[in-house]
Amino acid sequence: MAKLRLDLLRHGETTLGHTLRGWLDDELTEQGWSQMQATVQHHLNQKNWDVVVSSPLQRCRLFAEKLSNDLQRPLFINEYLKEMYFGDWEGISTQTIYETLPELLANFWQFPTQYHAPNGESLVEFHQRVFNGFQQIAEYMRQHHYQSALVVTHGGVIKLLSCLAQQQGLDNLLRMSAELGQLHSFRLSHQPAQLSFEKVE
Fold first, then answer.
1. What Pfam families is this protein classified in (predicted)?
2. Is 59 flagged in the annotation as binding?
């Protein structure tokens, strides 16, 4: 079974950073861009990425486009790597949600497998979508004989992979760390219809 190295970079600070952004296509702030740039510079010497992969949302994509150009590496945009879709909560601060729907928000934080944002994506749907995305990435890398990728993505995606890699129940998803602009490394083992992740410290 082939093992691929994936370094997941969470986007930096964005203009709507105090809200649940989900699929909203907000921009990076200057600070957000700097956070990502500093992380990449720090790791550049010991990482030799074959390809840059990105979520289509501009808080990830614009940085990924520039980086792939700077490093002269191919860029693969994957639609499945978007953040969880928060439905009616998109663009709303957690404080506002807490003031109007405190019980639902508390249940969502504690039991995300059972509760989700009104008209939003369930965790089962999110899990399946992200899994499909990484299957596509693994297949793409296999076809091109790539061994390592930098994946520019979102907090929810990183937290999901951390859960899977540590064999934690998905209700622990929101307790996983995924700081803005930081790198999280995984090894991905893949064969048809089967993926497994390991966390790399």
1. His_Phos_1
2. yes
Task: Note the residue count of the chain.
Answer: 201
Could you report the per-residue pLDDT of 78-128, keeping only the tens digit for each?
999 999 999 999 999 999 999 999 999 999 999 999 999 999 999 999 999
Point out which residues pair with 41 in neighbouring strands: none
* Lookup result for tokens 């993926």: 195
pLDDT in tens, 6-20: 999 999 999 998 899
CA distances from 176 to 88, 93, 126, 161, 184 (A): 24, 20, 16, 10, 11
Closest C-alpha to 23, from 121, 101, 147, 139:
121
Residues known to be catalytic: 11, 83
Query: DSSP alpha helices (H): ranges in the chain?
Result: 30-43, 58-71, 94-100, 102-110, 123-144, 155-165
DSSP assignment letter at 14: B
Q: Could you give the CA distance from residue 27 to residue 200 in angstroms, rounded to a whole number?
A: 30
Fold of 2-197: Rossmann fold (3.40.50)
